[in-house]
Amino acid sequence: MQELHDAPLAPLTTLRLGGPADRLVTATTDAEIVAAVREADDSGTPLLVIGGGSNLLIGDKGFAGTALRIATRGFELDGTRLELAAGEVWSDAVARSVEAGLAGIECLAGIPGSAGATPIQNVGAYGQEVSSTITHVVAYDRVEGATVTLTNAECDFSYRHSRFKQHPDRYVVLRVVFELEDAGGLSAPVKYAETARTLGVEPGDRVPAATARETVLKLRAGKGMVLDPEDHDTWSAGSFFTNPILPNEAYAAFLARAQERLGADVAPPAWPVGTDRTKTSAAWLIDKAGFTKGYGTGPARISTKHTLALTNRGGATTEDLLGLARDVVAGVELAFGVTLVNEPVAVGVEI
Question: Does residue 227 sit within a domain?
């Protein structure tokens, strides 16, 4: 188990932001992860768990405690059952599952980060969420001081949320198990309208899983959502804000504000969530509030490819990015009465 002191954390995040950790431990086995967590807990040392670093915003002062980098590896495929170690690179795991002819996560291609992070956020994109295929998660429970197995139902999945996100200091994910589908090399039914249009099919149709994956990768790349060290549009945490889900009364008030601001015929994106709530688009809200692609003049700006991505143009600080995020939140609130919620985990700072 590698150990460093006064270790830079910025290189371990896709935003390339944040100060150093007092101590950085890199664990390559489940046993090493558990040992490092127990050591921190027994000594009362603050603990920061880092996987792929794609969903972290670390303050410029860094982290006064132990940062634990999860670097375990493991890809085990048994029929349609896929078990991944928490440190496995997610995009590689998706590629290998598609190469094996299996469906269920092909539209989650290109999402940066580690497999262990996927249940925490209930990662989703282009019509798929991991909650649809996860059967159980193996995690270390810091309250019980034991390794536990949580079923899909026990994970309490919802939109970009889970039991793990609800209790961020309790669980450290060790392994994630999925049940995929053998559809003869075809994808799961295509659900997302943009994906279906690009593929030239109708929603609900199936296409070769490899084609679905390649199409999603192209769509993501066009929005700066596939990591590229040479492209500052990808120096981001992906989507910085979640899509708001509003109770019907709040959505009606938002719609009235939008029509007053933009015209009576405006129709914001809307997706019913049950019978009493509606989800709308954070990207639409940001754009219509005046924060268009490329917005900003400093080292932290909105991506030139996607309004949901706040980017480090090189040389930015966390405070630079926070200033941009706060401007966006305040501007959307003023324009539409909707409060955006950040998706990345903020460490040592508040939006």
Answer: no
Q: For residue 166, give its domain range.
A: 75-222
Contacts of 55 (CB under 8 A, 6+ apart): 113, 117, 121, 237, 238, 343, 344, 345
Q: Which residues are catalytic?
A: 160, 239, 343
Single out the residue in 189, 222, 255 at which a domain terminates: 222
CATH at 174: 3.30.465.10
d(CA 132, CA 77) in angstroms, rounded, equals 18
Residues 87 and 188 in one domain: yes
Last residue of a domain, one of 166, 190, 222: 222
Q: Does pTM top 0.90 for this prediction?
A: yes
DSSP, collapsed to helix, strand or coil, labels residue 10 as helix
Q: Are strands 63-70 and 20-27 parallel, antiparallel or unpaired?
A: parallel
Q: What is the DSSP letter of 211?
A: H
Cβ 159 vs Cβ 245: under 8 Å: yes
User: Which DSSP string do the residues of 213-239 spell out, in sequence order?
Assistant: HHHHHHHHHHTT-S--TT-GGGSS-S-
Tally of structural domains, the chain: 3
Q: Reduced to 3 states, what is the DSSP secondary structure of residue 295?
A: coil
* 219-277 tens-digit pLDDT: 999 888 888 888 888 899 999 999 999 999 999 999 999 999 999 999 999 999 999 99
The reply to whether 201 and 286 lie within a common domain is no
Residue 41 CA, distance from chain mean position: 27
Closest CA to 101 of 176, 205, 187, 177: 187
